[in-house]
Amino acid sequence: MSVGKRAKSFSCGVPPMLTVLAFALAGAFFAQFLRANAAGARAAGKPVAVRAAEPWTGAEIVQPAQLAKELAVKGKSRPVVVCVGFSNLFEGAHIPGAVFHGPASQPAGMADLKKWAEGVSRSTNLIVYCGCCPFAKCPNVRPAFETLRAMGFQHLRVLALPNTFYKDWYSKGYPVEKGK
Question: By mean pLDDT, which of 30-34, 76-80, 165-169 is the weakest?
Fold first, then answer.
């Protein structure tokens, strides 16, 4: 029996190329379905499922509205916020009181973050954010989070900015500071 006959009998008489095309289309529709559901959840203010490869848990994600509430409270419980993105974005607008140590995707930025973190108590309520690009593709937030966790920070969280800092924080009217 030739390979062609095997393929034809395996696909129940459907030409092999049509079988491949059908699976490809089904995969594309399923991916679109997942993206649409995640977008709908975000729009409704609901948490979006975390990819299995993420270094943080769902409990270690803070949504913008929650962080804005936490920042409004003065005192010991107020989080320390560190921007690990790019300096030009930080200088354009950043979360009030945030410090800049980045970009974490570059050796000099990571070294700066580590040096700063050496002097911070490991029990600090610490929030990491970037916002340079869509969260899923950010080159800075994951290495920063992983490094800070490895340094022993016990109350470490990441700010969920699914799109960008501008779209998910600034344009929603949350407070900002400009400059260094």
Answer: 30-34
φ, ψ (nearest 5 deg) of residue 65? -60, -40
Question: Which residues are within 8 A (CB) of 137 and not within 5 positions of it... i.e. 6 or more apart?
Answer: none
CB 108 within 8 A of CB 139: no
Residues in the chain: 180
- For residue range 116-159, what is the model confidence (pLDDT) as tens digits? 999 999 999 999 999 999 988 999 999 999 999 999 999 999 99
Do both 65 and 151 map to the same domain?
A: yes
Same domain, 67 and 135: yes
Half-sphere exposure of 103 (CA within 13 A, CB side): 15
Q: Which residues pair with 94 in a beta bridge?
A: 177
Tell me, yes or no, whether 65 and 35 share the same domain: no
Given a cut of 80, is residue 23 above it in pLDDT? no
**Count of domains in the chain?**
2
Question: What is the DSSP code string of 102-137?
Answer: --TTSHHHHHHHHHHHHTS-TTSEEEEE--SS-GGG
Kindly state the DSSP code that residue 23 receives in the 8-state scheme.
Answer: H
Global pTM?
A: 0.70
Q: Strand pairing partners for 83?
A: 100, 129
